[in-house]
Amino acid sequence: MEGIPKTRYGTIAEDMAEDNRFAPSSSLRLVLVGRSGCGKSATGNSILSQPVFESKLGAQAVTRKCQAARGTWNGRSILVVDTPPIFEAKAQGQEMYKDIGDCYLLSAPGPHVLLLVTQLGRFTARDTEAVRRVKEVFGAGAMRHVVVVFTHKEDLGGESLDEYVRSTDNCSLRSLVLECERRYCGFNNQATGEEQRGQLEALMAVVERLEREHEGAFWRNDLYFEAQMLQGHELNTRGEEHRRYLAKVRAHMEGQKPHQVSRALLRVKKCMISYIGLCIFFVICILIVLAILINFHFRQGR
């Protein structure tokens, strides 16, 4: 897709330049999320079957701002939004708030699916952090709309992806798959022709099943409402409104932190309760053993 024009909110495909507040329900909106260097942009290109997003092999981020492009699948319009490194622990400051705001604006009125991209066999602490950040950016409830996409599917060799997921000893990955109710698929972003179409069919089957479960509803929250409101303002008034919008993005992100702390404290509390319960169990066992030994020696003495 050539000649993609830029907007103040990132990069957007030419046929998307109109206001999308009332986008038809037949349009499918997908947002690529995950850590830097995991293959989000390459996955977006595979979905659209053309090199729309800049993609290079490496651990460093290539995407510097939110980008969006449209394609079609079996006659249905697909919007794919690629994201910069906003899901990293080091992401912070005004630039991060702007990137998050742009992501909301480009995917308004809300995404049907968040595609959480991770590299096969490389689910690390950075990926775990990215999952946490996804919950911060979109809200914990957005995990109901997440599909995990494993890149480098070709590394499976003769093993199936189901076997890999079932047999993994990575606890964090297993937890993520369970949280997403086993919604996942694999991508070889070097694939062409029938292989490329086959893996896209597999992804769309998962996506369409998820859509049916949600009865076609997409994910939205208060910030998506604010993004739609901003899109509805006249161009000559958007400057001040955009500043107010970014302030709301910042308030949204800062509002997520107490929830994250509360959840962390709850996990610590559960661990402490489990530890105390285990200690009590061992103490009871020791007392029982001592009672048995004392009783045995008492009988021997008689």
Overview of the structural elements:
This protein has a single domain (about 5-255), classed as Rossmann fold (3-Layer(aba) Sandwich), CATH 3.40.50.300. The protein is built from 8 helices and 8 strands; from the N terminus they run βββαββαβαβααβααα. The chain has helices spanning about 40-50, 95-105, 125-140, 160-165, 170-180, 195-215, 220-230, 240-300, and strands at about 5, 10, 30-35, 65-75, 75-80, 115-120, 145-150, 185. Strands 1-2-4-5-3-6-7-8 form an 8-stranded mixed beta sheet, with helices on both faces. A hairpin with a 2-residue loop joins strand 4 and strand 5. It starts with 5 loop residues before the first strand and ends with a helix. GO terms for molecular function: GTP binding. InterPro entries: G_AIG1, GIMA/IAN/Toc, P-loop_NTPase.
The whole-number mean of residue pLDDT values reads: 83
Q: What's the CATH topology name?
A: Rossmann fold
| Rg over CA atoms | 24 Å
Give the full name of the CATH homologous superfamily: P-loop containing nucleotide triphosphate hydrolases
- Could you name the ranges where pLDDT drops below 50 across 5 or more consecutive residues? 1-8, 12-25
> Based on helices, strands and strand pairing, what is the structural class?
alpha/beta
Q: Can you summarize the main beta sheet?
A: 8 strands, mixed
Percent of residues in beta strands = 5-15%
CATH class: Alpha Beta
Tally of extended strands? 8
Give helix and strand order, one letter per element, not per position. Answer: EEEHEEHEHEHHEHHH
Number of domains: 1
